[in-house]
Amino acid sequence: xxxxxxxxxxxxxxxxxxxxxxxxxxxxxxxxxxxxxxxxxxxxxxxxxxxxxxxxxxxxxxxxxxxxxxxxxxxxxxxxxxxxxxxxxxxxxxxxxxxxxxxxxxxxxxxxxxxxxxxxxxxxxxxxxxxxxxxxxxxxxxxxxxxxxxxxxxxxxxxxxxxxxxxxxxxxxxxxxxxxxxxxxxxxxxxxxxxxxxxxxxxxxxxxxxxxxxxxxxxxxxxxxxxxxxxxxxxxxxxxxxxxxxxxxxxxxxxxxxxxxxxxxx
Length: 266
Prior knowledge:
The chain is an alpha/beta fold and 266 residues long.
C-alpha cells in the first residue's frame, strides 16, 4: 500500500518532499537545544535530495536553527512557521514580519517576569517566540496559567498566540504558517506532486493546504502524520496515512529511496 502511494507520487514530476523537523525527524526532546535529527533520517534525506526535485524542511524553529539541526545543505529550509527562508547561508525574513519582532519580544519578556515556574523555557526566535512548559512540575497547570496571561498580552501587543506540543507560541498577526509555506514551495518549484510529513497542530496547516491543492487538481499530494502519545487529533484527521514515531518516518524515507534504487525514475 505505502509503496504504491509513493510510486504514484514520484510518477508525477516535479515531485517534492516537505517535512517538519521536531517530532518528525528528531524525537521530541526535553529542551529545544537537546533535539537531534536521527542519523537514519539524515541519511535517507540526503539520498532523497539527490533524486527528488525538492526536499524542504518547514519548521517552527528559526531558519538558521533548522538548517543547523538537519545539517544538509541540499535542502531548502523555511523557519518560524513560514516567516523566513534560509538561502545562501543567510535567513531572509518576510519584510512585514520584521516590524512585529519588538512586540513578540515584549510579550515574551512580560510573561517571563510574571510567570517563571521552574522548568519553563523562554525561547526568542527573532520573528516568533516560544514558551515551553514540558519540564514544569505540573504541565497542565502551567499550560492554563500561561494561556490566560499570554492571551491578554497578545491582545495588548497585537500579536497572535498558537499552541503546540507542550508549548505556547507567539507570532506576528500575519496569515503566514506552514500551510502558506507549503503552497509557496509547490508554486515556486512547479510541483505536480508533494508529500508533507508532520506531527503537530502547526503541521495541520500544511496538511490542509495540500488537501485543498489535491481537491482542485493543482497537485497530487500525500499527507503523512506521525503518531505519538501527544499527537493531536487534527493530525490524524487530516492525514492520508500515519506512521509510528520518528522510526516510522525513517522507514518511510528508506522505502522511498528503495523505489529509486530498484527502478531509477527520471
